[in-house]
TrEMBL record, chain A:
<protein>
    <submittedName>
        <fullName>Putative iron export ATP-binding protein FetA</fullName>
        <ecNumber>3.6.3.-</ecNumber>
    </submittedName>
</protein>
<dbReference type="InterPro" id="IPR003593">
    <property type="entry name" value="AAA+_ATPase"/>
</dbReference>
<dbReference type="Pfam" id="PF00005">
    <property type="entry name" value="ABC_tran"/>
</dbReference>
<dbReference type="InterPro" id="IPR003439">
    <property type="entry name" value="ABC_transporter-like_ATP-bd"/>
</dbReference>
<dbReference type="InterPro" id="IPR027417">
    <property type="entry name" value="P-loop_NTPase"/>
</dbReference>
<dbReference type="GO" id="GO:0016887">
    <property type="term" value="F:ATP hydrolysis activity"/>
</dbReference>
<keyword id="KW-0067">ATP-binding</keyword>
<keyword id="KW-0813">Transport</keyword>
<keyword id="KW-0547">Nucleotide-binding</keyword>
<dbReference type="GO" id="GO:0005524">
    <property type="term" value="F:ATP binding"/>
</dbReference>
<dbReference type="InterPro" id="IPR017871">
    <property type="entry name" value="ABC_transporter-like_CS"/>
</dbReference>
<keyword id="KW-0378">Hydrolase</keyword>
Length: 225, 263
């Protein structure tokens, strides 16, 4: 399968304390890969994932998308295809539906439109009835918020999901709903790929077939090309 | 109408009123005693100093005397606008001075050249108090704007990164914070404009009336000044907020949250 994202000697330094957060990382994510990265908190898992999402600038090294470097003007476009999901879901005021419609107000996604049928299907995967759409975002539990946040991303049909411990703060039921949503997304297209950062080894084994470890900024277990 | 001059004794009586504040501070254990004393001393010293300085400048009404004074006033206003707020970032001082300077001088120029049309333009009796009033209000707008902006960016960090992660541009991600910050900076001026004349009689107008000017003429000046103030503080606030935005969001659509520091 072809390389979707590739990092070359990617490093990141904590600018204020001059502490290395990531040691040079060469990593390739191919279409169809289901990767998990486990490691202690503070080991650099999230730092790596945020770098891949282009949310933080690397100190040195390169990130390629479909074998091409990514120009500044392309970044929003990249992020709408390579979707990062944070551990803390951020919802806007308003209903669940308002939140799901929000991405289509952004310039990058303006040409696309909200698809109620697709969203209803996604809600079904998470075991939610359509009347869930009318709920106020402020009334949702942490698990429900994460489900909304995930559906908001999945409805855009991303190529790659970068999941930053999406279930770390959730109860078992909500965790299963999140996992079910992601399995269904994978089933939709064999080219889709995912990196799942987790400190839960069982979940990592269950949800991925390439297991990597991060320790003090060193990514190990990288499969040789 | 006669004009009542104030003696040192008169000022002493007024100054003794600060004792009320002092008594309150002691009674309620506010711990403001030292600050009160310091504030009172500064009020007296700064005003006496500016009184002498202005007296001197009015005698030597040359542009090379007035212009440096105006520059110094602007610089101090810019610096004090930067000195407030809980959070800061590298370059905040420059942003604050730039936005105070640009907005207040532009609007003062409109006031002096287009509205009041005095000759020469640097006539200190006009140029200095008008710039001073504009600066005082602009600095409030600028400091509130920057403070609110940094606060919104800190508390709204998750939302900002969510918008960026979905494919939003840096502008789309910062929009809400920018809107809130500009509002916060403009509200004091708007409040002032809605109650002026009803709840408060502005200082300049009061001064003109005390000096024997007819209230109608004093009001005309006040109306002009209110609009100059409103324009300058709006421009200054928007400028400061946009400069903050440029510092904290990179052209690669990243939110540089590490640049924000607690003071």
């Amino acid at each position: 399968m072809s390389a979707l994202i590739e990092t070359r000697a990617l490093t990141r330094l904590d600018e204020r304390r001059q502490v290395p957060l990531l040691q040079p990382i060469d990593f390739t994510l191919h279409a169809g890969d289901r990767v998990s990265i486990t490691g202690a908190s503070g080991s650099g898992k999230s730092v790596f994932l945020r770098a891949l999402a282009l949310l933080d600038a690397p100190t040195s090294g390169q990130i390629l998308w479909n074998n091409q470097p990514i120009g500044n003007t392309q970044i929003p476009h990249y992020r709408s295809h390579i979707s990062y999901l944070s551990q803390r879901p951020a919802l806007l005021d308003g209903s669940v539906e308002d939140n799901l419609r929000f991405p289509f107000s952004l310039k990058t996604l303006r040409k696309r439109s909200f698809d109620l049928a697709a969203v209803t299907t996604l809600l079904g995967h998470a075991g939610k009835a359509p009347d869930f759409l009318a709920k106020r975002a402020g009334d949702l539990s942490g698990g429900e918020s994460q489900v909304v946040s995930l559906i908001r991303t999945l409805q855009l049909n991303p190529e790659v999901l970068l999941l930053d411990e999406p279930t770390a703060a959730l109860d078992p039921t909500s965790s299963r709903e999140v996992e079910a949503l992601i399995d269904a997304w994978f089933a939709g297209d064999p080219a889709r790929a995912c990196i799942w950062v987790s400190h839960d080894l069982d979940q990592a084994r269950r949800m991925s077939d390439i297991h990597l470890q991060m320790s003090a900024g060193v990514l190990s277990g990288v499969p040789q090309p | 109408m006669n004009y009542q001059n104030l003696t040192a004794l008169d000022m002493g009586i007024a100054a003794s009123l600060i004792l009320i504040n002092g008594a309150l501070s002691l009674l309620l254990r506010l711990g403001l005693g030292r600050q009160l004393l310091w504030a009172a001393v500064r009020t007296v010293v700064q005003l006496l100093a500016i009184g002498y300085l202005l007296g001197w400048v009015f005698e030597f009404a040359y542009w090379y005397v007035v212009l440096p004074l105006m520059c110094a006033m602007t610089l101090i206003a810019g610096l004090s606008a930067a000195g407030r707020g809980r959070r800061t970032y590298r370059g905040q001082r420059v942003d604050s001075i730039l936005s105070v300077w640009g907005s207040s001088w532009l609007v003062t120029a409109v006031g002096l050249f287009a509205v009041i049309r005095i000759h020469p333009w640097y006539e200190p009796q006009y140029a200095i108090p008008i710039l001073g009033m504009i600066l005082g209000n602009t600095l409030t707008g600028v400091s509130l704007g920057i403070e609110r902006m940094t606060q919104e960016l800190t508390s709204g960090r998750n939302t900002i990164e969510m918008i960026l992660a979905l494919g939003g541009s840096r502008w789309e991600a910062a929009q809400e914070a920018i809107r809130q910050a500009v509002r916060a900076g403009m509200i004091p001026t708007l409040n002032q404009m809605t109650v002026v004349g009803i709840v408060s009689l502005p200082g300049m107008m009061t001064g003109q009336v005390l000096a024997g000017e007819s209230p109608e003429d004093a009001v005309r000046y006040q109306i002009v000044i209110m609009f100059l103030i409103a324009a300058s503080s709006a421009l200054g606030t928007v400028g400061a907020v946009l400069l903050t935005y440029r510092r904290l969001f990179s052209s690669s659509h990243r939110f540089l949250r590490d640049r924000l520091q607690e003071r």
